[in-house]
Structure formats: C-alpha cells, structure tokens
Amino acid sequence: MRHLLFTASIALSVALSAGAAAAEDFYLRAGIGFDLQTETEFRDGNCESTEPAALYGCGLGVDGAPLRSVGDFGTSTGFEVGIGGTVAPAVRMEAFVEFRPSLAFSGRANFVQTTEQQSVSAELSALSAMVAAYADLPELGLPKLGPFDPFLGAGIGVARIRTGETQMMFPATTTHVPGGHRTGLAWMVTAGLTTALGENTMLDVAWRYSDLGTAETGAGDGRVVWRDGSRDPLPLDLAATEAQLRSHGLRLSLRYVF
Known about the structure:
The protein has one helix at 2-17; strands spanning 27-37, 40-44, 69-72, 75-88, 91-109, 119-136, 149-163, 166-169, 173-177, 180-196, 201-216, 220-226, 234-238, 241-257. With 258 residues, it is mainly beta. It is 6% helix and 61% strand. The longest helix has 16 residues, at 2-17. Strands 1, 2, 3, 4, 5, 6, 7, 8, 9, 10, 11, 12, 13 and 14 form a 14-stranded antiparallel sheet that branches. The protein has a single domain (2-257), classed as Beta Barrel (Porin), CATH 2.40.160. It contains 1 helix and 14 strands, in the order αββββββββββββββ.
C-alpha cells in the first residue's frame, strides 16, 4: 500500500505541475463506486508446468472450452479519494487512489474427471493509484444538459490485487489453492455529469470502465481435502494461475474546489 500511495503522490506532482498558476482551481474529491464485474476466468500462467504443477493443465474441459475456472465477482463497492486541478480552460488533471476491499469470485471449473459439482470461490481485494485527465465539454462549446455539465475522462496507473485462498468444491473433495498478489498496469475510461451543490462543492455522477490488470493465485502449497475424513489431505505443489480483472459501473463523488 505504501508503494501505491507514493506512486499517487508522484503522479499528482506531475499531473498538476503544469497548472500551478491556477491554484485557486485545485480540488479534493471523495467518492464511492458500485461495479459489475465482467466475466472472469482463471487459467494457468503456464499450462505445461510440471514443477510446480499446473492446476488446470493444457487441453479442453468437459464443456469443450480450455481447462479453467470461469465466473464473476457480482456487484462490488469501491472507495476513492483524489486531488486535482484545472490545467487548461476545459481540462482537469487528477491523481486518485481507489480501494476495492472485497471482490467475491464465484464460478465453476471444467475438469473432465466429473460433470457434477465443480464450484470455485475466492476473495480478492484491489488497491489502485492513477493519474487521470478530464475534459469538461461545455468549456469546449458543447451544450450543457440543464444544470449538468457533461465530461469525459481517462486515466492510467498501477493496481495491486490480493487474491485470498481459492476453494474448489468437487463431489467428495475440496481443493485449496494458495492466495497470492500481483502489481501491474491499470487504466480506466469514464463519462459523467457534474452539477454544483454550492459555491465550492460539486457532485459528479459517472460511468466508469476499469481494467485493473492481472489477479494471480499463489505458487506453492495447496492441498486436496476429503470432506468425510476418509483420507489424509493430499499436498499439492502448485504453479500460479491468473485472471484479468475488469469492471464497469457507477461512481458518485463530491468535489470541493478551493
């Protein structure tokens, strides 16, 4: 987390250096987001790995698709804070940090050994830091929408995704896959509306598409557990699996302009 906060502070310095003369337009922003995750699949980073062993392996599953677990994260909530400023009449630059504390993956594997229960679950969290640019469209000559000013934006930065232990439920056994974490490139695009709530306070309502990069399970000690206790757990030395974490959803933010 310290690394991402440091990244955000450096990004802010770069983003606002060009607008230092417009200090009266600096603002603080705090918001909440409600995301719908797109379909997500976990697959081996290297399906041919033997030491440690690939979890899924190469080939096709019982459904004819590559061996994998596929599902989604349902609806999740994120919280963000940012600081920005005007760098041109129609352009704002901003650095922000967003935390998604709970992403609950629910899906199904497609191993060929059974056509019965193959449910998969895992808990993830994501912390991201980005630099974003926003274009306030009425400043470019486009019309307002009543009391609302439309805007477009895009941002790029880094995200750190933590994946908890994955549990794979089969008819008689549960496979436990170790958790892991990964830091990589993240980006977003957004479109929204702004309206004034007071002399210095603005409300932003926006749609956002986010790509937070790659989530990764851990490499190392996993195990197969027989739920009836008929056998001792079977240890597994597993290679990492990975998935692309993408989402889209609503953002509600308050901006206080200095």
